[in-house]
Amino acid sequence: MDMSNTYASWEGKHFSKARIVFDHFHVIKLMNERLDKLRRRYVAELDASQRNQFKKLRMLFLRNMEDQAEDSLLILRNMRKHFTELSDAYLLKEH
Asked: pLDDT tens digits for 6-56?
């Protein structure tokens, strides 16, 4: 189901023993939004030249790992050393 509270409350009222399963699209959408928010927080802390380079990497974090080019995977691995929280969030999204 959708991740809306409306659906969850209706389901709980009418199907109290049902197991709730959120659809893949909405879970990934939420993870991408959180990941982008975290990325923007890092960008705000960088100087101007670093900020311009980092902004160009936005799509790396939004793209699925299996769709990444080899050079993109190398960039992500290198970023893991410097931005562990962002990298961990990306890996959680992929999991």
From this structure: 887 888 788 888 888 888 888 888 888 988 888 888 888 888 888 877 777
Count how many domains the chain has.
Answer: 1
pLDDT of the residue at 16: 83
Cβ atoms of 57 and 75 closer than 8 Å: yes
Residue 28: C-alpha distances to residues 5, 37, 65, 80, 81 (Å) = 17, 14, 13, 21, 24
The answer to the question of residue 12 being in a domain is no
The DSSP result for 1-52, as a single string, is --S-HHHHHHHHHH-TTPPP---HHHHHHHHHHHHHHHHHHHHHTS-HHHHH
Structural domain including 75 reads 25-94
13 with 35: CB under 8 angstroms?
no
In a domain, 1, yes or no: no
Q: Is 2 left (phi over 0), alpha (psi -120 to 50) or beta?
A: beta
